[in-house]
Amino acid sequence: MVFAVTSGTLLLVSIDGTVVATALPTLSRELHASIAWTTWTISAYALGTVTGLPLAGRLSDVLGRKRMFLIFASAFTMTSLFCGLVDNIYPLIALRFLQALWGSGLMPSTIGVISDQFGNDRDRPIGLTTTIFPLGAMLGPAVGGLIVTYFSWRLIFFVNLPIGLVLVVLLWRLLPVDGPRNNRTLGIDIIGVSLFALTILWLMLGLGKLGELGWRSAAAWSLLVMSILFAGAFWYRQEHSAHPIVALALLKQRRFVIVNALNLVYGAAAFGVFGLVPLYAQTKFGMRPLEAGALLTVRAAGMAGMSTVTSLFILRRFGYRRPMLVGFLVLVLGLVLLSIPPVAVSASTWLTIACLVCGLGVGVAGPPSNNAALQLMPEQVAEVSALRSVFRQTGGIIAISVAAAAIAASAQDPSVLTYVFITLAVLTLISAPSIIGVPENRPRARQPQNVLG
User: Fold this and answer.
1) Are residues 60 and 202 in the same domain?
2) Of 208, 225, 245, which residue is a domain's last?
3) Same domain, yes or no, for 134 and 226?
4) pTM
5) Based on the domain organization, do 329 and 391 belong to the same domain?
6) What are the C-alpha distances in Å from 46 to residues 103, 168, 236, 265, 311?
7) For residue range 33-64, what is the model confidence (pLDDT) as tens digits?
8) Domain enclosing residue 202, as ranges
9) Quick count: other Cβ atoms within 10 Å of Cβ 283?
10) How many CB atoms lie within 10 A of CB 267?
């Protein structure tokens, strides 16, 4: 029951990550905004997630799972209400950031609860959590397409209210009462988190301006320079902070760098631009919102199915490295299929096949990647889970920012995403050989059975 309810909160958050994907043209029309600005409803959600994750991991480990779970879930639900009430794209973008900021706390909290409940047998349930986000990604576009086609886009956010309230009540009843998890002080580096968020924000703004105004734009390059300056300030802060977000000693560990460099690429290729696939399908191939949203549903179905199979039957038999390599190569194939014209079938069928292949690749690579990251610091699973997600979300933010810049540079023509897909395929292929440096699982000896009870 605890696994089901905590996973339910993850499902709610993951649905909101993709639910607006099919509504981008509708938001652009009804809120009188350009496509470049409506894509920020996706980008801001990713930015809020990557900003909140370092805080959430520490809060969950230090202040207790139940307390933080209830706070995160309640605030996420209330912010959803405000998202559905706005009449302007700019407050909607700001609220999407806040919505993700609260929702980001639920991932490390869930991993922490599961780790506490299952102990040394946590690899399978933690692996199964990777099926939750694909399931949300599967439901999100379908729900969004259905709502946009037959109702108001505002219902996209209002449906969170009854579901969120039920989950909060169940969490309050089911989760065991706990106090601080350890003797460490809270020690949250607010300045460090702010500098990191500003680095990503200015990078997003700079890339957007670069696409809108061209390579000669002084404003665009000024924003990119500001991003570099904030990155330098963040690095300096991490060197001198008593409680750094990312301990620089970790960045000197070869395995940590390899795992999270792969997470960066994985986030860009597996999640970053896929929120724009329905827009790509609607504008280039004339597909309807519900049909275009179904592409992400098919992809997520492949992810969920393969994540389950990988978690239950593959991890303990084949380890982490081989499934990750297979997953990366299958993902490359799917991205290539997305980037080339349909062959002998309709555009709808071709895109469905491409999205399914991408989903299968992500489903194979996800569980071993999750568990490999936990091998780095098994005593601090919530924080490691948060850092892993930070790198993935950062990769996704960079990818979608580049995609939005490419759309702006091509006079609002989303068909330019073709070149983004093939670029990500090449990048993923180049990174695949470094999987050999990923920590491998350590098979546990089978415990003798006590036949006397």
Assistant:
1) no
2) 245
3) no
4) 0.68
5) yes
6) 11, 23, 25, 15, 26
7) 777 778 788 878 878 877 777 777 667 666 76
8) 190-245
9) 20
10) 25
